[in-house]
């Protein structure tokens, strides 16, 4: 049976599910890298376990801020390649594939260099407790060292997604995920390492997954085949990728920037709250990946059908994606809440950590009611190559609301609950703005005869 979903023909609903399930599983498995890190270091004795959890979890917004720009560019590759496949333009497809691979490696090297220079100062800006600082810097430096392979994997995955194949990235990540867990246990329990052990395990595992996908691309018989003798960047293709990808990356960076401010506020409440927030984040993100997979499916389905001139399928994709996304997100959130205490205790068994972590989960999952609209509508617009509008909506709705809330309301009421209230508020505003914008913009009518 082919691993590739036929995006242009056949029933849209079942095809989106076939596309989204492996994609969601891939995101969840990728997050297990960090969850495994937390689970292992959280078992270190006494306060050392809490400090190690805080060091690993406290770095997440910083890593996201720098990585998300390039992940956004990878989304630009996804849209451009999907559109070219829909048009049956093999020349553009091949150029976009090679440009994406080379850009990923160079971008990763750039992030490594920048990250090593700024790691110490960034952790200071996060206002982490003194007992966490040294471990946080150590974890961040090692993680930055692996940026070339981390970005390469994300760009390779985008290439496979663009042609309807979400199973190969899942298989690659499954192999490296098992390796990550084994290396975590070996480095920490056998060699006596702490956060440096779990960071090294994450980098090595990402290297393995990136190599697996690269070999698959080299051996691919289709337009996405990589020719290792001709590694090149096509300037015109890169510009088209960046035109879509940079606004998407900027949107993610804004999201991460706002989360850094929030993380700094969380850090100011102490190590126990930091540990609880880190544990809850590593559960809530599983539900997010389920939701996000339908947004990405919407992007790819719209991109290919738009390229093929099937605008009727583009509009149907939006409605079906929204319905299926709401259902899948509700199920995943419900399951996590049902077993929340047991799941949180995997990271740390302190009753206070579990209590605070449960509070976070309830607020975040309520906010996901609005996130579904934001994710799917953003994916719909990007499928037409419209990337600046979702980015602008996020700047207003997410960054603006969250920063205003933290610097006004939280400044006078410094509790964890007050911090959590900003999530449904900001996502609700964003969902409303992007919904109204999409209705007014009407991309399926506006771009009826245009191609990317």
What would you say this structure looks like, in words?
The chain has 16 helices and no strands. Helix 1 (12-41) packs parallel to helix 7 and helix 10 (271-307) packs antiparallel against helix 11. The chain is globular and about 60 Å long. 85% of the residues lie in helices and 0% in strands. It has one domain. The two termini are 31 Å apart. By secondary structure, the protein is mainly α. The longest helix has 37 residues, at 271-307.
Name a few traits of the molecule:
85% helix, 16 helices, 452 residues, mainly alpha, single chain, 0% strand
Write the layout of secondary structure elements.
Elements: H1 12-41, H2 46-58, H3 60-87, H4 90-125, H5 130-145, H6 147-162, H7 167-190, H8 195-219, H9 235-267, H10 271-307, H11 311-338, H12 340-347, H13 351-383, H14 388-412, H15 416-441, H16 443-446
Helix pairs in contact: 1-2, 1-7, 1-8, 1-10, 1-11, 2-5, 2-10, 3-4, 3-6, 3-9, 3-10, 4-5, 4-6, 4-9, 5-8, 6-8, 7-8, 9-14, 10-11, 10-12, 10-13, 11-13, 12-13, 13-15, 14-15
């Amino acid at each position: 049976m082919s691993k590739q979903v036929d995006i242009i023909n056949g029933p849209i609903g079942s095809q989106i599910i076939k596309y989204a399930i492996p994609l969601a599983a891939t995101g969840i498995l990728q997050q297990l890298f960090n969850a495994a890190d937390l689970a292992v270091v959280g078992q270190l004795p006494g306060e050392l376990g809490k400090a190690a959890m805080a060091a690993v979890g406290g770095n997440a917004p910083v890593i996201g801020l720098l990585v998300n720009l390039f992940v956004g560019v990878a989304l630009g590759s996804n849209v451009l390649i999907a559109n070219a496949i829909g048009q049956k333009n093999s020349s553009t497809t091949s150029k976009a594939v090679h440009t994406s691979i080379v850009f990923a490696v160079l971008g990763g090297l750039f992030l490594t260099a920048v990250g090593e220079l700024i790691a110490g100062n960034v952790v200071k800006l996060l206002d982490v407790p003194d007992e966490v600082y040294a471990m946080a810097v150590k974890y961040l430096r090692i993680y930055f060292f692996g940026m070339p392979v981390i970005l390469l994997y994300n760009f390779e995955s985008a290439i496979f997604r663009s042609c309807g194949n979400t199973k190969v990235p899942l298989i690659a990540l499954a192999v490296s995920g098992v390796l990550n867990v084994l290396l975590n246990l070996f480095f920490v329990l056998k060699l006596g390492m702490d956060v440096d052990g779990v960071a090294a395990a994450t980098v090595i595992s990402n290297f393995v997954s990136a190599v697996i996908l690269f070999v698959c691309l080299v051996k691919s018989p289709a337009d996405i085949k990589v020719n290792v003798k001709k590694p090149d960047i096509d300037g015109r293709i890169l510009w088209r990728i960046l035109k879509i990808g940079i606004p998407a990356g900027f949107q993610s960076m804004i999201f991460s920037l706002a989360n850094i401010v929030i993380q700094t506020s969380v850090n100011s409440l102490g190590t126990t709250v930091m540990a609880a927030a880190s544990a809850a984040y590593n559960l809530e993100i599983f539900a997010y990946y389920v939701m996000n997979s339908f947004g990405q499916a919407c992007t790819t389905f719209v991109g290919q059908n738009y390229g093929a001139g099937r605008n009727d399928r583009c509009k149907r994709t939006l409605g079906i994606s929204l319905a299926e996304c709401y259902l899948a997100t509700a199920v995943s959130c419900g399951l996590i809440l049902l077993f929340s205490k047991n799941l949180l205790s995997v990271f740390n068994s302190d009753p206070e950590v579990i209590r605070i972590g449960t509070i976070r989960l309830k607020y975040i999952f309520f906010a996901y009611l609005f996130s579904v609209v934001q994710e799917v509508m953003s994916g719909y617009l990007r499928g037409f190559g419209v990337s600046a509008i979702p980015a602008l909506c996020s700047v207003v709705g997410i960054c603006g609301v969250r920063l205003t809330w933290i610097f006004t309301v939280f400044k006078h009421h410094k509790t964890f609950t007050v911090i959590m209230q900003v999530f449904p508020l900001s996502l609700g505003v964003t969902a409303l703005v992007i919904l109204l914008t999409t209705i007014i913009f009407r991309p399926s009518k506006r771009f009826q005869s245009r191609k990317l």
